Amino acid sequence: MTDRIEGFINSKAGKKILGAIGVATPVELKRYHSGLSSYLEGDVLLDCGDNAALLKDTLRNIKDSAAVITLGARAQAQSGEPANNGSSSPERYQALVFDASGLSDSLQLVQAYEFFNQNIRKLKSSGRIVILARPHMECGNAAQAACQRALEGLSRSLAKEVGKKGATATLITVANNAEANIDSSLRFALSAKSAYVDAQVIKVSTASNPALPDWHKPLAGRVALVTGASRGIGLAIAQTLARDGATVLGVDVGAMEAELIKAMTAINGAALVADITAEDAPAKIGDSLKELGGVDLIVHNAGVTRDKTIANMSEQQWQLTLNINLAAAQRITEALLSDGVINDGASIVGVSSMNGIAGQRGQTNYAASKAGVIGYVDFMSKDPELLKRGITVNAVAPGFIETAMTAAIPLMTRMFGRRLNSLSQGGLPIDVAETIAFFGNPASRAVNGNVVRVCGQAWFGA
Ligand code: NAD
After folding, report:
1. Considering its fold, how many domains does the chain have in total?
2. Residue 23 lies inside a defined structural domain of this protein
3. Any atom of ligand 1 within 6 Å of the Cβ of 406
4. Candidate from 304, 326, 400, 413 with most ligand 1 atoms within 8 A of CB, to mutate
5. Is 366 a catalytic residue?
6. Could you list the residue range(s) of the whole structural domain that residue 59 is in?
7. What ligand 1 atom has the least distance to the C-alpha of 231?
8. Residue 233 and residue 178 in one domain
9. Which of 280, 301, 409 has the most ligand 1 atoms within 8 A of CB, as the residue to mutate?
10. Containing H/E element for 347?
11. Which of 168, 213, 339, 462 has CB 3.0 to 4.6 Å from 218, enough for a Cys bridge?
């Protein structure tokens, strides 16, 4: 039955009906593979508004890729570089990059309008739009703050206009004096690794940032903890971190032991059977990590749903969900911190959810736990001790990701659910994993306190 309905939805008639109600047919997204020689290939058009502060570092990064750069008139004038470092003037671009960091009042935003008005049709399928800005709350006056904040609305709306071709838009805000810290964020946003990250704002701070590692092996020599690592998103996280060079300690419950051991053996990782809510779990995890030399990346991925409307929900269903999804992760982090198992420069990542942001009927427990993950990350990312040690705390908030968890959603809800975003498709576990690997990249030390949604710009949720 499921197959027949899926078949109909993917048929010509099905697509016509979905199109009529505004649900587009998805474009296959281009994702990372090891055959890519560079984080960015193809033609890139780069321009800026007046007084662009991020042009130099943006150019430095793009020049360090296989891309061919074309500069707009303002970028030429401000950088003193020629219009094109390739042989011809391209008709289509893989990426449109606009540095709006110097714009200081609302009417100057017309410079961004001109750029996108003239060029947006030239963006390729699976292309990228990146806008560079300043955090509005760091601006010197209200007019500038309004102008810089306006760029968020622009970027999110552009994402909606290009989503049907599988293209995305990202806004990167860079704190004053943090210009040279843009590297890992700019490269992630422009690369195939961010295929399902759409309409997001990535904040770059002034924290001192180490040099960029090898793009294919950014986590070489690092140790990662992944809870819930035997299947779904957790498995993809473990595999991706190992692909990027990390040694992974995967944790999962006894019922998943065989799968966990198989998965960890395949990536030369270590397996630990533990229920993260058990009293001795933090100590067991800490002991295993000590044997590996401490931990550089902690991914609190293990999570469950126990869906019921609140009137029908038992206290056990409520408490179990809050305990696994939120409280256990906190207990483990606190224990690893106080036992000195977390290395300097480490990265802690919480896995939230779009339903934690938007709320969901029948998921009061789950949404509360996932919103709590964001609160924890917000608070911990400002902890003076962690800041001093260069430890970052961030979260991903996946939208509809194709896993066993979403396969359990009733058929029709699932069919529509996966299409209710600008890219008209569900994401893959690898999309969440790539974002976590970006947070864990040692060159992302200035990326702290971010909540990045991996949701293809879900229609629901702020
Ligand atoms: P999943 O159910 O496929 O995998 C979850 C894993 O966590 C399983 O291996 C499970 O055994 C493990 N786990 C559960 N309780 C545990 C415990 N007490 N101790 C140790 N391990 C435990 O789920 P998934 O879809 O891969 O989701 C992974 C994470 O992503 C979860 O936190 C989930 O809330 C979040 N998420 C998923 C989606 C989605 O669309 N799939 C969307 C938003 C957020």
Report:
1. 2
2. no
3. yes
4. 304
5. yes
6. 41-204
7. 9
8. no
9. 301
10. strand 342-351
11. 213
